[in-house]
Write a structure and sequence with these properties.
This protein is of the alpha/beta class. It contains 13 helices and 14 strands. The protein folds into two domains: 8-50 and 297-402, Aspartate Aminotransferase, domain 1, CATH 3.90.1150; 52-294, Aspartate Aminotransferase, domain 2 (3-Layer(aba) Sandwich), CATH 3.40.640.10. Helix 8 (196-209) links the parallel strand 6 (179-182) and strand 7 (212-216). Helix 5 (108-119) packs parallel to helix 6 (134-141). The longest helix is centred in the last third of the chain and has 27 residues, at 294-320. The two termini are 30 Å apart. The structure holds pyridoxal-5'-phosphate. Pyridoxal-5'-phosphate (PLP) is lined by residues 43, 107-109, 133, 135, 183, 188, 216, 218, 246, 248, 253, 258.
């Protein structure tokens, strides 16, 4: 519940926004972080991996070489270099730029918001995984859409359950969903990866039932064991897939940069609605940084650092967790999803866990409706190894007590 007093203009807000400000918002979870507890809550990158000196050199170089132009509307050549870099990256993934185009955005969330603006009318239906990235549920809710969820198992979205829902909807005469939002690679929050067979089946269903696929590849480059199967956007020529990417996890969230690739006409539509433009100066120096090859050069070390932390968290879970607790073993990304005995409520346990020395995000945050009461998300990337040890020990003690 928002603390602020009500104010006259409030009544003029859209109905979905009015409802949203009364719900606990994204930022309010920060209050869960208590000073003495290890935070396994947030999906933050390891700040030791931020390339501060490389970025500083790129800022200097752009200002020295482009001067005012870099700071003017539109910016200069280095901004174009960012675009070329991203097009090349996406082409290497298999995106066909004869039929598709790229839009640079202020992050993946902005890219998805832009897609929503272009496509969603109140009352439309979208499909999400359950659980799914909590930050995006708020974005979808702003548009007053119906959110239909499909459960996830160790191979990602259980696509046959989506097929059953689509069948029932058609029998009822319901309109097709506008799109299915999926995080196929190293999913937030479960860490699972959508299998190749399920990718194929999802694309078949999109064709059969006439909907789009919004593919969020925020973690695609952060594979730790092996690359994920190919992006959905490259597995079909049906022009039904919009793919979104982000620099938040591989470079730094603070640059607020992401992108989307979409069929050309759809990219044009998103460009039309992405009002206000993007931060062209940041694009210029990130363009300089990426073109110099430093991001690509750093990725192996980033993977190595996260692999070590992931392995350490899994070892600590194995060693400490009481019986009846289960967890995922992610092949990439930032997260481990823990399922507690049915009798343990993760939200109710959070306060005592914080006192014991650990915080996490309770499962229900990741569900559009009910679900996840006995589950929680742990992030292994932001914390140091000894914090992982202390955090998992505190978690194990809290679970044992809650049982
Ligand atoms: C699946 C997913 N998509 C998008 C984002 C956010 O990306 P950005 O910071 O580029 O908006 C996150 C980060 O938490 C995420 O987990």
């Amino acid at each position: 519940m928002s603390e602020a007093e009500s104010t006259p203009l409030e009544e003029k807000l859209t109905a979905p926004v009015r409802a949203a400000i009364d719900e606990s918002a994204y930022g309010s979870w920060r209050s869960i972080a208590t000073e003495d507890a290890v935070s396994l809550s947030f999906g933050f990158p390891d700040p030791d991996l931020f390339p501060q000196s490389g970025l500083a050199e790129s800022v200097d170089a752009v200002l020295a070489e482009e001067g005012d132009e870099a700071l003017q509307y539109g910016a200069g050549e280095y901004r174009e270099e960012l675009r070329s870099y991203l097009v090349e990256q996406e082409r290497e993934r298999g995106i066909d730029f004869d039929t598709h185009d790229l839009l640079v955005t202020n992050g993946a969330t902005h890219a998805i918001d832009t897609v929503c603006r272009a496509f969603l009318d109140p009352g439309d239906t979208i499909i999400v995984e359950a659980p799914t990235f909590m930050g995006i549920l708020g974005v979808f809710r702003n548009f007053g859409v119906d959110i239909v969820s499909v459960p996830v198992d160790e191979d990602g979205m259980i696509v046959e359950q989506l097929a059953a829902k689509l069948r029932h909807r058609r029998e009822r005469g319901a309109e097709p969903p506008t799109f299915a939002y999926t995080i196929p690679d190293f999913h937030n929050p479960t860490g699972t990866t959508l299998s190749r067979e399920r990718r194929e089946r999802l694309l078949e269903l999109a064709e059969e039932y006439d909907f789009g696929v919004l593919e969020d590849g925020a973690y695609s480059d952060l594979w730790l064991d092996a690359e994920a199967p190919p992006p959905l956007a490259t597995m079909t020529d049906s022009e039904r897939v919009i793919r979104v990417g982000s620099f938040a996890k591989t470079l730094a969230p603070g640059v607020r940069m992401g992108w989307l690739t979409a069929p050309k006409r759809i990219q044009e539509a998103t460009e039309t609605v992405a009002a206000g433009g993007t931060n062209t100066f940041t694009e210029s120096f990130v363009g300089h940084y990426c073109e110099s090859g430093q991001l690509d050069d750093n990725l192996p070390a980033i993977r190595e650092a996260y692999r070590a932390k992931r392995d350490h968290m899994l070892d600590e879970l194995e060693e400490n967790m009481p019986a009846e607790v289960e967890w995922t073993e992610p092949a990439g990304g930032f997260f481990v999803w823990v399922t507690l005995p049915e009798s343990v409520d993760a939200e109710a346990m959070l306060e005592s866990a914080a006192e014991a020395g650990v915080t996490y995000l309770p499962g229900p945050m990741f569900y559009p409706g009910d679900g996840g009461e006995n589950a929680l998300r742990l992030s292994f990337t932001y914390v140091k190894k000894d914090e992982i040890t202390a955090g998992i020990e505190a978690l194990a003690a809290s679970i044992a007590q809650a049982r």
